[in-house]
Design brief:
2 copies of one chain form a homodimer. Chain A is α+β, with helices and mostly antiparallel strands. Chain A is built from 10 helices and 13 strands. The two termini of chain A are about 20 Å apart.
Chain lengths: ~350, ~350
């Protein structure tokens, strides 16, 4: 960088991105953003942006997935990767309480990729389009000098008054999560372990049969559109919502910051699958740490007004893990033994 | 690719992507796309997709730019690169006769990039947002194991009846182009030449002063939103339109194919800047070939009904290069000597 005639690509001062971290960098860049158009209802700072669209709103979310950072093609089957790339964007639309309708898919391919490999990737993309009822309406296909890059933008629809932002949680609201947590992180550890075993001895057959729940969650997660549809049918609009991509603790921090509130959650209410628990123990990981800090589960974290509790009380896949408090009360986990421990945010670190 | 447990990433059969080319690959993948939602008015196959939005439509375009394929940081200053990345997407919105309103920007950064470098890139992105009146409403920031990747999605607005598709050209319509052509290609050749000179002898100072038009077009093109606004003021809706990103000949093929028509253009009507012409000659390139096949000028190619000719006749930056014929009449360039030569499409080849 910074050869001829472009000296200014190499400035005198050099601050490492890792000094700021992903969220620090985003905050820093966004300070300078000015919204000029009245149709831009919500810009950066939520799971998706919100744009005026006549009688409704469009919600827009985008993700850029890079080989070697977000996926490892030595264990991620291409159809699963294609499905996951769509699912993680649909999950952001779900997190706004909106219905996904369209996606664009851009891919950059090195010459390592054959047509058959691209077809395998798109097999998963088409399967996800079918599963979520979204249309593939555009994209870009280009060469890459290095690894595979996949960039997807998802566009959804909602009535304006039904959009759930991160900022709407209020004192005494109930904190809910869907499904179970920690599986994707534990699955990743298993896949990495088996990869190392294989690299050390290629004749060794990896034993993955007993880990299908956790590896499946890592390789082919499902966005919780079922929950969004059910909330709609029950007439419940979450007061705040986001998807769990960086880990429960990190997401609770986001909601508390955006809403200006605190939160208390209870260890004995946190949902963990038996296979996730057993595998975490096998790997010498603390299962509760996996639940709190494991990313990529793509479950939904949301808050509801107490008046809506009855409507969801018997739902088999929604768990009531705590409640919203005043901001000054902070963010606490009450352990099984009754001790209140301050929650620390420890999301995914890419840098 | 195709290590454990993921054997299916490496299929038995291997067809090279280069056997199909970019357009062949896109066509192949799109055969399987099914549009399910009535709000998806136009999917793949134009400069941008079109989505229903109450009283108007949204147009959506996306591009993925990869270091080493789309840009070379040894001569592309980062602020210019940021501006260009936005401009090329805005150009796709312009090509639909729509007004850009929002963009999302995703970047993948290797640890080679300092905070100061990212700031320089965003300086250009913000300048473009300002210049085109668009809001930066979202994106993704992540690490890259290799080069820089930039993915931008632009969203614009238009009245439904004012959208110009590639498919609307009809016999006797007049073919128009804005500005002048070939400059970006010639500029790229100059930058590549000076880079080689510099690599051979780093003490050599590159002499770029006399090439500012052509290098400027390559490094920091401007989307022709001025033309879109003027067409609106004059009450002219082009019967078809696209932007010239792959080269005039290639774009004429796209419009003819989508509209089911032929076209005749005239060599003496093709606009070329004096510096482009002179530099092409200096580089031993045929100037007309640069005009026909040079990519990345980001001018607009459009067709108008003859009734609208009077409204545009005196416009200083719109050139009437030919007319639309019956499909059976083919695609021809009439040279200065009066010979009709068949046009060959020769767009950018990334693969």
């Amino acid at each position: 960088m910074g050869l001829l005639p472009c000296k200014n690509n190499m400035s005198e001062k050099r601050t490492e991105i890792s000094d700021l971290g992903e969220f620090g960098l985003i905050d820093h860049l966004n300070e300078k953003v000015i919204i000029k158009n009245s149709s831009s209802l919500k810009g950066i700072g939520d799971d998706a942006a919100v744009i005026e669209a006549g009688d409704h709103v469009k919600v827009v979310s985008t993700d850029l997935l890079m080989e070697g950072v977000h996926f490892d093609l030595s264990y991620a089957p291409l159809p699963h990767l294609g499905f996951k790339a769509v699912a993680v964007n649909v999950s952001d639309i779900a997190a706004m309480n909106a219905i996904p309708k369209q996606i664009t898919v851009s891919i950059a391919l090195s010459n390592r990729f054959s047509l058959e490999a691209v077809e395998a990737l798109y097999e998963g993309i088409y399967a996800a389009c079918d599963h979520y009822g979204v249309d593939l309406i555009g994209g870009d296909t280009t060469a890459s000098r290095s690894g595979l890059a996949i960039s997807i933008t998802a566009i959804g629809e909602a009535k304006k008054e039904q959009v759930s932002y991160r900022s709407g949680a209020k004192e005494n609201d109930i904190l809910c999560v869907t499904g179970d947590l920690g599986a994707a992180l534990v699955g990743l550890q298993i896949l990495e372990r088996e990869k190392q075993v294989f690299l050390a001895n290629p004749d060794m057959k990896p034993d993955l049969e007993k880990y299908t729940v956790v590896t499946g969650r890592q390789l082919r997660p499902d966005a919780r559109m079922d929950i969004v549809h059910e909330l709609g049918e029950l007439g419940v609009v979450p007061t705040s919502m986001m998807d769990i991509s960086d880990g429960l603790a990190s997401e609770i921090f986001h909601i508390c910051k955006a809403s200006g509130v605190g939160a208390t959650i209870y260890e004995d209410k946190l949902p963990i699958d038996k296979q996730t628990f057993d595998t975490a123990v096998e790997l010498n990981l603390d299962p509760i740490t996996c639940v709190l800090n494991g990313g990529e589960d793509y479950e939904l974290l949301f808050t509801i007004d107490q008046k809506d509790f009855k409507k969801l009380e018997k739902h088999p896949d929604i768990h009531f893990i705590g409640h919203i408090t005043k901001e000054a009360e902070g963010k606490y986990l009450v352990t099984k033994s009754g001790t209140a421990v301050q929650i620390k945010a420890q999301g995914w670190k890419h840098f």
